[in-house]
Amino acid sequence: MTCSVVGQPAGGAAARRGSVPTVPRPGRDRSLQDALRARREQASLLSLREVREREAARKRAEEEARERAEAERKAAGLVARQRETQEPVDRRTRLAPAVYAAVLALEPDVYFASSHWRRVARAQRAAAPECEVAACERRAQAVERLDGATAGEERPQHDLVSLCDRCRHRSRRAARSLGRPLTRAEATALDPAAPLYDREAIAELRARYDLA
Question: At a CB cut-off of 8 Å and minimum separation 6, what does 118 contact?
């Protein structure tokens, strides 16, 4: 009669348990593998040239952001000084276009008091002394910037238009409605017979000053 072995070496069962391979978790492991594979495949979609172009574009964007921040910082200092001294922001030296643009965005009145603007506005009125609205026959008394003009680089007869005071008011009202400066075609097509104020504006003025 044979007898089965009853005793087992100490730790035998534990050893056997430890040798049992870990059962993989298909769902989780597969999703991780898929994610890694997708990332490798996505990276392989870009050629070396495209990678370099993207990196160059990123560096350009960063550089432009730094230059814009520096221009805004300089413009803020110039505007603060102009308020104290009442001197043109460019009395000492001509500014970079980016700084002129920052001054215009920050404080338009300060920009239009600059030496640059006075010079180009004077040249524009000399080139076009009459209001350039086609149906208007008045003398020009103001100069307006046209759509697409670059601050600090406006060119007379290209980026500017001569207007009488009434047409200037109409052009500014139209620009506010459009959310941008007028083009030359839009400015010269203004109707000089149109009322300076629309009904809503007149009602607002009457209410503000308590006029019957």
Answer: 88
DSSP state of 164: -
User: How many Cα neighbours within 13 Å face the side chain of 153?
Assistant: 8
Convert the pLDDT of each residue in 151-196 to its tens digit: 999 999 999 999 999 999 999 999 999 999 999 999 999 999 888 7
User: Domain ranges in the chain?
Assistant: 52-113, 129-212
> What is the rounded end-to-end Cα distance, in angstroms, of the chain?
127
39-to-34, 43, 46, 53 alpha-carbon distances in Å: 8, 6, 12, 20
Tokens at 25, concatenated: 């978790």
**Is the CB of residue 181 less than 8 Å from the CB of residue 144?**
yes
- 97, amino acid identity: P
The two structure tokens encoding residue 186: 């839009």
Phi, psi for residue 42 in degrees, rounded to 5: -65, -40
pTM: 0.68
